[in-house]
Amino acid sequence: MQKIKSLVTWLLNSAVRRYIRRNGIKVIVVAGSVGKTSTTNAIRTVLAQKYRVHRPVTAYNTSKSVHIEMFDLPFATSAIGWIKTTLLVLLQTLSRSPYDVLVVEIGTDHPGELHEFAWLQPEIGVLTAIVPEHMEYFKTIEAVAAEELSIADFCRQILCNANAVERRFVGAELLQRIMWYGSDSEYSANNYTLKQGKAMVDVTIAGQRITSMPVQVIGEHSMDALLAAAAVAKACGMRTSEITHGLQAISPVKGRMQLLTGWHSTTLIDDSYNSSPEAAKAALDVLYGLDATQRVAVMGTMNEMGGYSERAHREVGAYCDPAHLDLLLTVGADANDYLATEAAAHGCRVERFTSPYAVGAYLREQLQPGASVLFKGSQNGVFAEEAIKSVLANPEDTAKLVRQSPFWMKRKAKQFKDFPNA
Prior knowledge:
By secondary structure, this protein is an alpha/beta fold. It is 37% helix and 19% strand. It folds into 2 domains: 2-249, 3-Layer(aba) Sandwich (UDP-N-acetylmuramoyl-L-alanine:D-glutamate ligase), CATH 3.40.1190.10; 258-415, Alpha-Beta Complex (Protein-Tyrosine Phosphatase, Chain A). The chain is built from 15 helices and 14 strands.
């Protein structure tokens, strides 16, 4: 059976690669420990100012799902469904492509997985960050770095985020190939401000400075995605005027630093999709900078940290500042055991929960008019997006939250006894 699967995969890869070459499709891949989805979205938005860019109905980040993502086919869950999907992919590769550019988010859980995307033969590879991820498998940050930087083995051009990729991980030979964005490079952002929900930033694109540019995404750390998009666009031959227009068109992705309106005229920062120490601290910085009558943070367990988990959660707990934070609510085992304990030791008012629905109910009682609330978490055992539902001013905004499909709602129902209508 394994030999058959390998043969089918080889057949699909070969057919899709011929399709890419025949249609002259430019392939760009986005790797990194964090920030891949926001960066992928930003690149697609900016490149769309000049090129026909594919925007998949459903996005995956595994090598086995690239084919169905390219042609917007359903994910097969049975042997018959897989055969049908395989035939549909092969049939689609005989057609003419409706797009010029394919931007693919590529992910890894284990060492060596990124090399499974090598068959795409990308022209550009973007590396967003090297920080602890899936540490139960990688064990060390050096192993993470080796995996993420392995995209250099199969990408013609490499772009790296100078704000989140330490040069100590990059060998001398590879260093000569890399084009940097962020920090003091030719692609940088300065003087970021957020007032009354409106963000402004000065952006430098290929050495040309554009001042006071309005952007829709929030958080100084979110500017990295815009800079990546600008650097990719320039590498693809776009003019600076086209790039700036595209940067202003970039909108937040579900569950990633998205502003929502809560009841009692509160501001909700939905960053519930996933979490890591660096991302959690960056999100807290945004919350600390808001002018609010009350600041509340809902922080969930950071999953897949392995043996690094206690250290990671204590690091975020220590970053919780009682001078800028009125209330911290934690959800999930490690967040309750380590993050909450560390935050309380630093003087924060902390409440612990085992369910996002209990968090939501508590928030309804505690929120003051004009408050700002940050929601940050991961998937299993957390699902912080469910807490947001209880305090939305407009229930229709539930559609803007992550993981609302029947698949995810069924999973949540299994995990939490207080799931609505359970």
